[in-house]
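Marked as duplicate of an earlier ticket. Keeping the data here for the record.
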Amino acid sequence: MAVILNGETVLSNIVASQIKSHQRFGGVVPEVASRHHVEQITLCLEEALAEAEVTPDQLQAVAVTYGPGLVGALLIGLSAAKAFAWAHGLPLIPVNHMAGHIYAARLVQPLEFPLMALLVSGGHTELVYMAEDGSYEIIGETRDDAAGEAYDKVGRVLGLPYPSGKELDQLAHQGKDVYDFPRAMLKEDNLDFSFSGLKSAFINLVHNAEQRGEELDTADLAASFQASVVEVLVTKTIRACQAYPVKQLVIAGGVAANQGLRKGMEQALAAELPDVKLVIPPLKLCGDNAAMIGAAAHVELAKQHVAAMDLNAIPSLAFQHI
C-alpha cells in the first residue's frame, strides 16, 4: 500500500514481502500468496495512511492493479480497493501492473516523451514505445521465457535460494564468460526476445557435466549466462531506440535491479545514443510495490479512466495501445 502525491512524490510505500514463505518451495505458490494477501492487506493499508499522515477524506482516488498477475492475489487487492473506495466515496482507478513498473521511473524524475521502456521481470520481457503519457505500444516481446524466469530456473539448477536473481548477479561478477552460451535472435530483423534456448543450453551443460563427473566453475557459469542475457537485452533495446525517436530510455521491472544490465545499458547508450537519457528506478522501486501503481494511476485519473465497481481481475492483461 502507498500514498502518492501528484503522481510523483512518495508519502508512504508499505511492502509486505512474502519471499521467506515461498523460498522453501523454490518459487511462488499462488495459494500461499493469496493467503498472505488476506492476512496483510488491511494492516498495510492502515500503516500506509499512518506513515503518510493523511486521512481517507484527504485522498483523491484509489488505485488498484487488476492485471496481469496471479488471479487470487489480484482479486484480494481488488476487493480491498473497491471496499475502501466505496466506503469513502472515492473513484476507483484501474492500473495495468506493467504500466506501474514503467511509471516507477516517474518517482525518480519527470518522464520525457516519446520514450522507450524495457520491461524485464519474472513474467515479462517487452520493449514498449510511449509516444505520450498513458500510451503503450509493444514493439518487441519474448516469444517464450521471460528473462526473469530464466534467471530463476538457472539459479535453481545452481542451487541458489529463491529468488535467485540477486545472488546470480553477484556471482556473475566473480566469474568470466567462458562457456559462450547462445545469443538468441540477435541477427534477426525484429525486436523480439527468446531465452528458452539459453536456459536449455545452460541446463544441458550442467547436467552433462554432472553425468561425466566433471566440475564446472559456478561463478563462470553465472557470468556466462548473464553475459548472454545482458548482450541480448542491450542490443535489442539500443536497436529499438535507434528505430524510434526517443528522448528517454526507462528500464523497469524486477530484473532492472540487475547490476550487470544497468552497467551494460549505461555503457551502450553512452556509446551509441548519448542524447538519450537513461532512467532506472532505485532498487526498492524495481520490485513490485504500490508506489509505482499510484504513479501510473495519476495519469489514468487525468484521462478520466475510472472503473465501475464490477471491475474484475484479468490475469493475462495486456497493454492497450491508446
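See parent ticket for discussion. The domain at 111-280 is CATH 3.30.420.40 (Nucleotidyltransferase; domain 5).
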